[in-house]
Amino acid sequence: xxxxxxxxxxxxxxxxxxxxxxxxxxxxxxxxHRFAERGWMEVRTAGRIIRTLEALGWDVExxxxxxxxxxxxxxxxxxxxxxxxxxxxDQGADPDLAAELQGxxxxxxxxxxxxxxxxLIAVRFDIDANNGDESSAADHRPFADGFASANxxxxxxxGHDGHTAIGLGLARVLAERRDTLPVDVRLIFQPAEEGxxxxxxxxxxxxxxxxxxxxxxxxxxxxxxxGHVIAGYRNLLASTKFxxxxxxRTAHAAMAPHEGRNGLLAAATAVQGLYAISRHGDGxxxxxxxxxxxxxxxxxxxxAIPARATLRGxxxxxxxxxxxxxxxxxRQVIEHAAGMHDVEFSLDVVGRSPAANSDQALAAIVSTAAxxxxxxxxxxxxxxFHASDDVTAMMVAIQxxxxxxxxxxxxxxxxxxxxxxxxDFDERALRIAVxxxxxxxxxxxxxxxxxxxRPGAPGSARG
Amino acid sequence: xxxxxxxxxxxxxxxxxxxxxxxxxxxxxxxxHRFAERGWMEVRTAGRIIRTLEALGWDVExxxxxxxxxxxxxxxxxxxxxxxxxxxxDQGADPDLAAELQGxxxxxxxxxxxxxxxxLIAVRFDIDANNGDESSAADHRPFADGFASANxxxxxxxGHDGHTAIGLGLARVLAERRDTLPVDVRLIFQPAEEGxxxxxxxxxxxxxxxxxxxxxxxxxxxxxxxGHVIAGYRNLLASTKFxxxxxxRTAHAAMAPHEGRNGLLAAATAVQGLYAISRHGDGxxxxxxxxxxxxxxxxxxxxAIPARATLRGxxxxxxxxxxxxxxxxxRQVIEHAAGMHDVEFSLDVVGRSPAANSDQALAAIVSTAAxxxxxxxxxxxxxxFHASDDVTAMMVAIQxxxxxxxxxxxxxxxxxxxxxxxxDFDERALRIAVxxxxxxxxxxxxxxxxxxxRPGAPGSARG
Amino acid sequence: xxxxxxxxxxxxxxxxxxxxxxxxxxxxxxxxHRFAERGWMEVRTAGRIIRTLEALGWDVExxxxxxxxxxxxxxxxxxxxxxxxxxxxDQGADPDLAAELQGxxxxxxxxxxxxxxxxLIAVRFDIDANNGDESSAADHRPFADGFASANxxxxxxxGHDGHTAIGLGLARVLAERRDTLPVDVRLIFQPAEEGxxxxxxxxxxxxxxxxxxxxxxxxxxxxxxxGHVIAGYRNLLASTKFxxxxxxRTAHAAMAPHEGRNGLLAAATAVQGLYAISRHGDGxxxxxxxxxxxxxxxxxxxxAIPARATLRGxxxxxxxxxxxxxxxxxRQVIEHAAGMHDVEFSLDVVGRSPAANSDQALAAIVSTAAxxxxxxxxxxxxxxFHASDDVTAMMVAIQxxxxxxxxxxxxxxxxxxxxxxxxDFDERALRIAVxxxxxxxxxxxxxxxxxxxRPGAPGSARG
Amino acid sequence: xxxxxxxxxxxxxxxxxxxxxxxxxxxxxxxxHRFAERGWMEVRTAGRIIRTLEALGWDVExxxxxxxxxxxxxxxxxxxxxxxxxxxxDQGADPDLAAELQGxxxxxxxxxxxxxxxxLIAVRFDIDANNGDESSAADHRPFADGFASANxxxxxxxGHDGHTAIGLGLARVLAERRDTLPVDVRLIFQPAEEGxxxxxxxxxxxxxxxxxxxxxxxxxxxxxxxGHVIAGYRNLLASTKFxxxxxxRTAHAAMAPHEGRNGLLAAATAVQGLYAISRHGDGxxxxxxxxxxxxxxxxxxxxAIPARATLRGxxxxxxxxxxxxxxxxxRQVIEHAAGMHDVEFSLDVVGRSPAANSDQALAAIVSTAAxxxxxxxxxxxxxxFHASDDVTAMMVAIQxxxxxxxxxxxxxxxxxxxxxxxxDFDERALRIAVxxxxxxxxxxxxxxxxxxxRPGAPGSARG
Lengths: 463, 463, 463, 463
What we know:
By secondary structure, chain A is α/β, with parallel strands linked by helices. The first copy, chain A, contains twelve helices and 16 strands. Residues 1-12 and 454-463 of chain A have low confidence and may be disordered.
């Protein structure tokens, strides 16, 4: 962290529309990076997105209009929401917008009318920072250049600051060519991607309901060089994230051990059982326990049977059926690890996203567009994602209604891997992404008739 | 916690010698209770003990003279020692003494000459508070009466504040009858009993080297009514306390799980293996893991293989051989739990005490003394301790050199059990303990010839 | 094994009444040893006991009259019972008696009237061989001398052959002194002690209902020298023996592992969970899994998820409450090990005996008697048994009705430990046991008034 | 089982050359099925193969000439080899050949000269039966029609009887068209495929050293309808099979449990640890424990700490590196499960085969050939094998020397799955396989120049 929050109180947002696009993308990205906000608490971030889009002439909706309250997952506790709201206000969040966005409603959707209403094209950008502290090493560029995260425990270590900047850059470019925009375009700025918590709530609110063609992008995944793009990821894994509490009873470990009900032993049994869940014959499976704590950290508490334990885990599968199998088995393991040691448990799903694949026909259009973009020198039609991203909640919703979706990889060298303290990417990737998405949008109306098989959805000329 | 530390800066220590003994015992105990100090950091406590004993005319040694540096176990890290030293100074610790006591040398030994040098009688008192926060419930007397712990994370929840007051009360009583004191008496004020960490370092420094008869006492253990005393506990369990660190390597749980080396899974395997160590045919065994934490608590870290885990445990046995078996097996379990999951580990012994039994011949003298003490209405010759106390390190050292030892139980109703936030005892127990110890000391010289078989140790009159 | 069963078809039973008692005891013991019969299948053994007792003039009951069918535990399957019946007949079992004894009803009770009906004295002898094959080493006396077990898988490796001989020897001695027998005496020959399966069924049939004083004896337990006797064992542990079947579903381990439900993994989980059941603060606990098998032994079956597993275990406690705790927890572990791995299970209790202690007042009478027996040179009033024997089912039933019970140890050097292939004892112990039991019976009527506090049970002279 | 072995003593082998090919294939297959012989013990089977091939005019080698003794894996113990040899002789094995084949040398290689020496084509057939008992259900065709296995514990439940018949049928067809045979052809009859034990020993003996094109086939795998063929399986998994013995020490579970070293607990710990080995980011992994037994099955042995346990397991991976990772980790788990419980262990590799893929260029030639075969109505160019077959040892050896290999699937409905008691296949598949292999051999010389890229290996006309 560097600098004082007070420096930025009431500062004007960096204007995406000012100056050369390359420079404004960097400026905007660094502002989001510095004021990193974690999932469901992107009050300052979402506010700046809204004001920018409004300024560019987009129709903007946000808050409860685009987030279904009940479909949200992993919303932080009220006291965290409250303290983070205050932090956002202290860092210049617009108080009027904050009132609408606070409490976990930090999504934004903007629409620009084109010459035809269909095919409706939507593009999604995730906006949340991750948990974690950013490196303050002298050779870590964000720190050296003064835009490292000002917020303890929050760090844009997955590139969503860049994604957000790309979204605003695309908003500028499309607004500038508004008169020739062939079809309606919708931009979706999604909170809480980390932990796959946010997309489902936007789908439930209807934001992709009438979308025909859907695009999203991620920086630096499987393509680790600027100039390389992946036209459509495949094999985005389905995932369920869960938190477990085991609650037993403590007792003196020598005088009355039988009176104890050992929550930590239940957790240990669960850990072993979870990793031992059988592979599946129909696809790739994964399971992990990222965290366990049980008992009391005080050294002298070692003479007490540990009553409580907390466990945080996840399962994944290369298909929804495989992932469902893993979660069913995980639940069974946890339930019976608790029962075996006579303790109570609770299990909360705090994140969930389906498996998905990019439509390769749409990816082909992306490839076509990419061939013309300066700075792109290698295009992979496809690559396995091998991880999870809740963009899939939108992809499968759109594919289910007959639409097409592609999740596009924007290559960049990374200073260190995603989710590490020294993560940083090459900002030249931002302009490439804007150009690629804009060109793809231009191509889609013409190409879609030929390449995208969609029963009965001809675009009719508007007014 | 209650009150502000600043209230007590430079306050004079409550004088044990002022006013009626009953009242001064309570006053002194409450002062120690309020300024609870954890093991190896009892700088204010030990300073007050020293000044009090000096004022009463005892010869006093302390610091490195009575603590063998290398034999100490479980000394806190330097930064904790430093911040606690400052806290002690802020709460009125004598700066000159603090310079000697700081850094983990908080023991005190005092001697008063009697008419004969032998049998040399020693009495031990433990002085440390425990980890833990004290209750601030309105009906918790220490809180209601304003003497609850002022120090976060430190709580006299095992009665050592009372033991210390008893020691000073005994010092007053013996000093008052100094002219008729039959033999030399030594008082040992021991730090860091919690976690069985301190006694061995005092034994190593030689404080019990020439002791013939040894006494100690504990409030409220197996005797839970004022008026009931236990003349000599049996079956104090041998115990070893240990801390383990498992260190593997993290990796993305879906993209490269095979690159991970799972420290948390090693800890989980160790937990199961430790509890499954076989019972022993020759005596009682116990094992407990009081605490485990592994991986990263951040919710989104659930997608990383957890590299590290910490485990805190203990084993016990009713004989040293049985306890050694348990520790040998525990080490084996931990080593191979690490090896099984390809992770490194370190194992530190942070506390250790042997098994011991009170000499029943000495307990018989305690019983005889107890019969004459007002307020004592029930005397048990013996009771199983069923737990551990590092007084045993002194007991077995003395028994090994032909001396006799008894650990005496002073009955008291408890508000709630030892090591709980609402622990409190009945302060009438303090006076009973002082009287019982003083009377026993009076009886010993005459009784020891008859009752304590000790080869060739006649007391010779001192010039 | 040695010799052919056919050699002994129709051979007359060795007569306990023929020749010097020492010699007949050895002869009888060796006959039982050679034709070792396991629990509930002692058809030849029980038949010989019956015919001998009848010949000596005792009133004899047997079969369903002394065995409650529903209270039996661990009765072998019908085909085993049938084949063993045939084997017994082939080895000279009395066909008429066999018809009554077969099917698991191999108990015998005999009564001899004394001058007074009360106090009624009962003495119990267990008669079953154990599972296991006997050594055929040249220096193993039973093999060298031609009386090693002729029956594969059955071996008197716990001394019950000796106990049975002692019982018949006592029957001879008491019959010989019938005219002066002070009170009624009942001899109980119990099947199926191994696995603690038989005693409860005799208690349920009422065989100890009106017993005032009860004696039993065991050779070579805690007293391993001829001449040493233990007047009354203490701390016979309560025990429950159980068999578990886990039933899942097999599947190809590579093609469809998710379709499997892994019974072997459930058993492995149960094994770890069982050994990890917490100790108990109120007494000694034990748990063991003696056997597990799961999956298919064929080498190539290693590619199949193992559907089934069998587990055989036991728990013990030094009190019934402690043992009940262990069994409750064991059941919980097993149930949830099954549930964790999605498999079915069944759990059968196949043996159960309570904790018990000998009455020390009765042991004192045994001690008094022992002082006069030639060959006894050391008498321990008591010793911990540290194991289980279902004689306790009779002891506690009698103690519950106000009677007194003692289980007596008859010292002997052993060639190797109980339950090992080379087990053998010193046959001089047999005569000592007979003499000790007979003398104790003589003393009881006179001593019982003084030493055995029994509310309102004066013996009245019999018409 | 059906019939008596004596019926067939000295019976002439069914002649593959007699009558219509369809009928002779069935006759030969049923003979092998009835006299099922397990791996390394196919003495009668190999003898009949040799005599048949010799009669057809092939050059035949066998025994130690084609099996490298040291490279064999999982050879049965000597007593099993001896009793199975006797059984084979009793069932009509040629005694002269038996002398060469016995002791685990049951491989056969035959060569027929064509017009050119190159490309040398080899075709492999596995000949062993599996462990297991065959169903004697009335509706199980082999039983109903009298050709069910006569040998207890041996069952052709994987179709190798059919493979062997196909091999002999192909030998007949090629011999019949010998004059026009374009190139040299070698037939490899391999023992001990079950458990992936035999192929490596034939490779080590050099039988594929100069092979240019390699074919093999399997009935009923992924193609479960007669008429469907798979031109070249992909994703044959690498596999390692291993046996583990844990050896501890027994002890009485209540009196001296600490003296025990619990081999069964070590096995249980290993089972849990093995299933919990982490997935791999680079490919498919599998692990299974097919069998564990530990302790003593006798019910009364439940009071003994179980000293010994046996475990049989396997690991697999979709690449050799992934499989090596799995085996390295499995070894680590087993070693430390033993160490954790203070027991010894041995680990024997009893089978091992690499990963492999069919060359798709060669598969294309198979497809071309298939198009012309009557009865084939569906050709899949490829399908994932999803299991292991040690044909891969030959495939990778040939591919490493620049040759080409394809493993071909011959479709058939199965009565029940491979390795089940009711396995049976549709015998029409036999003729289809012979025709397909013969046609492919005809096509290869012409096609190989065009399709199979092989540096500098033109076939030169033979004198």
